[in-house]
Amino acid sequence: MPFKRWSLRLLILATSVGLAAATMPMSAQPARRVTKLADGVYAIQHGPGGGGNTTVIIGTRQVFVVDACFLPSAAREDIAQIRQWTDKPVSFLLNTHFHNDHNLGNRVYMDAFPALTIIAHVQTKKDMDMFGPGSRRREEEGAATLQRMLTTGKTPAGAPLTAADQASVKNELAQARATVDELSSVAFQSATLTFDRGLTVDIGNREVQVKFLGRGNTNGDAVAYLPSDSIAVTGDLVVHPLPYFYDGYPTEWIETLDNVGRLDASTIVPGHGPILHDKTYIYLMRDLMRSAVEQMNARLAQTRPAMFTKFDDVKGAVDLTSFRSRFAGTSKGVAEAFDEMTSELVKLVFAEARLR
């Protein structure tokens, strides 16, 4: 399955396929939505299964796209939309990180624009090359897991499915099977140009700064910054309404979000979710992670280093419930997903502590 397929609560997919996970209930997914951010700058939120947000930046000579989404059909729809906006070629495509829901559409863009340069951080390209070719196989494994759930009436962890759960799994299975069919005709396309710290591209009266501001969700997260428009495109360093904590580097992520916050950006395009118009949510994410790290460190200081400690002995020392309403508001579904998300965050913080 794609690395962040929205689905029936986090529980189901997080326990089904090692590289698959989810961050919010499927019912909370938006339909495809296009938002104009500035003259010649657009953000595209994809519908269910389509993948992460795509940002289109049009200069007087060329077009720069950030993230190619997941489904090839969604990428083709985006390209058709771009051609309605301009007859200029897409010359540059940035993959913000290696998760395939942001880059599996690369091949579609390359086919449409053969002179395309696909940009990624050097670590992102390494991880894309490792995991990208196995995307269809993971979809097949995910579909098989969903089928077993329907057959047994239980989640992979053994919890019984309610009638509503079963209906959600059926919908998810139909989507997974359609995705497998679609991916059967698409070849994986990796990045063609890598960077370490950053680079700047002038696409004609518009400068796009590509920055590595530190590790966070992955070890090669890239940010696209448009200084003239005060826009930052963060990839999955920022995901709304809940962060993605199934992998990453929490201690460094805190500092990376501070670096994002230092950009003169009044518009933030997250990897998933609606456009943000200030940095409040960025700092909320940062404070959540900081609290988890500080509470874990305080507990370990009272006992012993993490390398000599079992997770079950320290997990109860981290309490993040004070953040629940700040993320979920009055939404019961998001609140439930928040609890599962923070459980994964605590595991991640402990895993990081063991590497000291």
Description:
With 356 residues, the protein is of the alpha/beta class. The chain folds into two domains: 217 residues, 4-Layer Sandwich (Metallo-beta-lactamase, Chain A); 70 residues, no CATH class. Helices cover 40% and strands 17% of the residues. The chain has eleven helices and twelve strands. The strands form two sheets. The chain has a seven-stranded mixed beta sheet with strand order 1-2-3-4-5-6-7. Helix 5 runs antiparallel to helix 6. The longest helix has 23 residues. The two termini are 32 Å apart. The N terminus is likely disordered.
What is the spatial order of strands in the main beta sheet?
A: 1-2-3-4-5-6-7
Helix content: 40-55%
Strand fraction equals 15-25%
> Structurally, how many domains make up the residues?
2
Shape: globular
Q: Tally the beta strands.
A: 12
What is the H-and-E element order? HEEEEHEHEHHHEEEEEHEHHHH
Could you give a quick summary of the protein structure above?
Helices cover 40% and strands 17% of the residues. With 356 residues, the protein is an alpha/beta fold. A hairpin with a 4-residue loop joins strand 3 (54-58) and strand 4 (63-66).
Keyword list:
356 residues; alpha/beta; 2 domains; 7-stranded mixed beta sheet; 11 helices
Compile the SSE list and pairings.
Blueprint lengths: L8 H6 L18 E6 L2 E5 L8 E5 L4 E4 L5 H14 L4 E5 L11 H7 L4 E5 H10 L3 H18 L10 H21 L9 E3 L2 E5 L4 E5 L11 E4 L4 E9 L10 H13 L4 E6 L7 H23 L8 H4 L9 H5 L3 H22 L3
Parallel strand pairs: 4-5, 5-6, 6-7, 11-12
Antiparallel strand pairs: 1-2, 2-3, 3-4, 8-9, 9-10, 10-11
Helix pairs in contact: 2-3, 5-6, 7-8, 8-11
